[in-house]
Amino acid sequence: MPVIGVRGTGEFSTDFRPTNYRELFTMLEPNGDAPLNALMAMTNSQSTDDPKYNNFRDELPARTVQIDKAAGYAAGITTLQLTTGDDVEFIVEGTVLVNATSGEVMVATEDADTANDTIEVTRQIGGTSLAIVDDDELFVAGHAASEGGSAPSAVSFDPTVSYNYCQIFKTSYQVTETLKNTYVRTGAKEDEYATKALKMHMQDIERSMFFGQRHILNGSTSNPTRFTGGLVNTLTNVVDLSSANTGINADADVMTEDEFDRYLIENVFAWGSKQKIAFVGAKVAGHMQAIGKSRWAPTMISDTYGIKFTQYDTFAGELLVHLHPQFRQIPGMDDAAIIIDVPNIKFRHLQNRDTHLLENVQNNDADTAKHQYLSECGLELLQDRVHTYLKNWDGIS
Question: According to the model, what pLDDT value does residue 17 have?
């Protein structure tokens, strides 16, 4: 379409003017080897002014405590020993507690003794005092104040601090000046190598986002080497199906459709968004295809550079599934799934160090042309337990 007048950068969309080579790659291969990076290229990317970046994580506590008494407690015993835990401090005078096993209701008569992890309670509120068994869980069910009473002790909680590093990724390609100026039937070799190098560069970043280990070498020197922590080595919400798990899979190595649905309801969608993305291996994709044929719905999510997902519907939320191409190449990932909550994950890059091409980095006397792609970037998890890692799903029953 002809255009009259001066042209400026603002007249071009990212389809014509990608802001960096990472975005260029996602347009070249929208459904290719780095779908996680393609997703974050359009959703959650943010620069940082330091190679170490921190974030604060906060969540409402469960306010659940556990009995620590091998012999248990007979009906009427009012001093209870608890296991050590942060939630003990939430029990103040007037806190109503319910035994999750027996249903008995009790109320704290004074603030918890946090030095010894004990509480004083009045038993059998409105009912019968029942025996308490070791490991019974008590949960906070509100607060009851007496008429004309004073304010209870104040309780507050602070967020935790997490961090990760930007890792420097470099991928070089080089041709002689002779080859550069030689006609080749298959096309210009420098252009071919440039495309292949970019693909490998993005593969390296993608694999680090999944499998990297947070670490720093020679941190006190002028030339430290930083490693960004990836999902596999960072997530704490991990379920290993190689053995039976209470409430998840009754038999080792297998999971039924009912067990998978309960796992989604009780674990995956228990925290965070009601729509999540699962990057799965080939075996897991086959299991899900077999157990949920009537519940799959092809869908396209906007603003993801054409990444294709298949939607698996549950009462708890929508699981968007993508067979990750690199999980086919990496040993041990065919029977695994990594489920992410997109609003709680970010691509962080050092300012002015997002993926870009450095040209002509060869030595001055070299009769070659050498270029390199460089990225200084890392992964940031704004929250942890909203993401899940399922592994060793070998079969269905």
Answer: 44
